[in-house]
Amino acid sequence: MRALLVIAIVAAFTGAAYAYPQFQMSKDQTCAGCHIQPDGGGILNENGFATAEAVSQLGMPPEFMYGTLDLPDWLALGGDMRSVAGYMQTPQRYLAFIPMQLEAYAALTFGNFSGHVTVGYRPPEKDNELATIIWSREHFLQWQQEEGSEGLFIRAGRFMPIFGLRFVEHTIYTRRYGGTPLFSDTYGAAVSYVKPKYEAHLTGFFKDPLIDPVRLGSGGALYGEYRLDERTQLGAGAMVEISSYEQKYRGEVTAKYYIPKPEILLQAEVQLVNPHVGGYGYRQLVGYLMGTYFANDYLMIDLGLGHYDENIRIKNLDRDAVDLNVHYFVMSHMEVMFIGRYELMQFGNGGPSGAYAMLQAHYRL
Q1: Residue range of the domain that includes 334
Q2: Per residue in 27-52, pLDDT tens?
Q3: Cβ contact 281:250 at 8 Å
Q4: What is the domain count for the chain?
Q5: How far apart are CA 189 and CA 259, in angstroms?
Q6: How far apart (Å, rounded) are the C-alpha atoms in residues 23 and 327?
Q7: Rounded to whole angstroms, what are the CA distances from 262 to 24, 68, 259?
């Protein structure tokens, strides 16, 4: 049982790097303003490099390998390494060290077309270890209407469907129980249109035929954001997933509000999920509220509240979590982060509580 528990925890914490949604509205109006992908994540663009240097205490050249490699204009490289160690209660109590991420990125751009690939480590599948311990989480072709971070984007390949606020921390309820759980990247196509005032993303996807996937269904997702002004953003989305044993319908609303003084960003996401299994339907509720305080240029503090109701008709199934994350951006390539959570079911009436307090190290190539 202890071995199975450790395996489950490693799977729960192993993650991938996406853009920090905390920087949207506080640093730039869109995620694409700092990344070469329309939904954020992966390789930074020039504005992203400048932001990485500006939010770090020690600075350092922010480009790939500190700019020591003279890459041609058509080639962009990157990568992320993360690991975490600390105390866990599940409800057993022990110390753990977990390797989270070891990935390299490459993007080749020729005119309006580009090819993107991510290669790295993932926890291997049982009885399929050699084929799954090294994998390509993302690989896709992209056509971009305009040079820069605006306009029309069309992608086809393997990537995460674009949905919701896209928090980095995949243990956040609206990711874990929402439409974008860890390792649910899959094959499909997406059309995105991004402008400073608004953006919209339409993704069609199908179950990965090559490996035993996390996303067991095929379907589509639609998500859009509208910025009322430089401080306020509202969003909404819908997702449909259909598999051999269930149909799942998901709708959501999101919101962001930035307060310049003091520098605080409020983010909220609520999803209503309607699964149907064997003709029987029920409702789930998933929500998350995060407040982020930018203490100074290099210190960012998140306080989050999560709620998940597995079936709103059945008592004692809902769970709640309080999260505290402290991000210290040491230099443009390195971040040290404290992550803490206290979680309980039905305020203690539905089962034992859980908790963790850990330090995470993140290095960007």
Answers
A1: 2-364
A2: 888 888 888 888 887 898 898 899 89
A3: no
A4: 1
A5: 36
A6: 13
A7: 17, 38, 6
